[in-house]
Automatic annotation (TrEMBL):
Residues 18-98 form the Beta galactosidase small chain/ domain. This is Beta galactosidase small chain/ domain-containing protein. It comes from Calcidiscus leptoporus. GO terms for cellular component: beta-galactosidase complex. One of its GO terms (biological process) is carbohydrate metabolic process. One of its GO terms (molecular function) is beta-galactosidase activity.
């Protein structure tokens, strides 16, 4: 759940029981991380180290349907090891709900959201 300082307003992120759910939230815009939506790094990063990022007056929420590992065996220049890569031999389905605090948000039958890849090794595109 995300909430303001006095916990009167917020957002609950929920998935079906037993379903994987991975997410992150932070006070940065996605563009602050110097990565295009296709997963390719920009040629000239604006910020080289996370400690240099400046917090913004916003909260960004990223909900992951699948995670392909973080790479890092050669300073982030290569794909994750094969055992940590996603396989697109069959569709990956996932679902979640966003429910604002203070509402009568009742569970619904969640419809799966398929992920697909445009090219081998590409980041999944919704």
């Amino acid at each position: 759940a995300l909430s303001d300082a006095d916990e009167r307003r917020g957002l609950l992120v929920r998935a079906e029981r037993g379903a994987p759910l991975s997410m992150q939230c932070h006070h940065f815009d996605f563009d602050d991380f110097d990565v295009h939506s296709d997963g390719q790094s920009r040629p000239a990063p604006r910020v080289r180290h996370g400690a240099l990022l400046k917090e913004r007056q916003l909260t960004t929420l990223c909900v992951d349907g699948a995670h392909a590992g973080v790479g890092g065996i050669d300073s982030w220049g290569s794909l994750p090891l094969p055992q940590h890569q996603l396989s697109f031999e069959r569709p990956i389905e996932w679902s979640f709900e966003l429910c604002p605090f203070g509402t009568d948000c009742v569970p619904t039958e969640m419809s799966p959201t398929p992920l697909s890849s445009q090219r081998e090794g590409a980041a999944p595109q919704l």
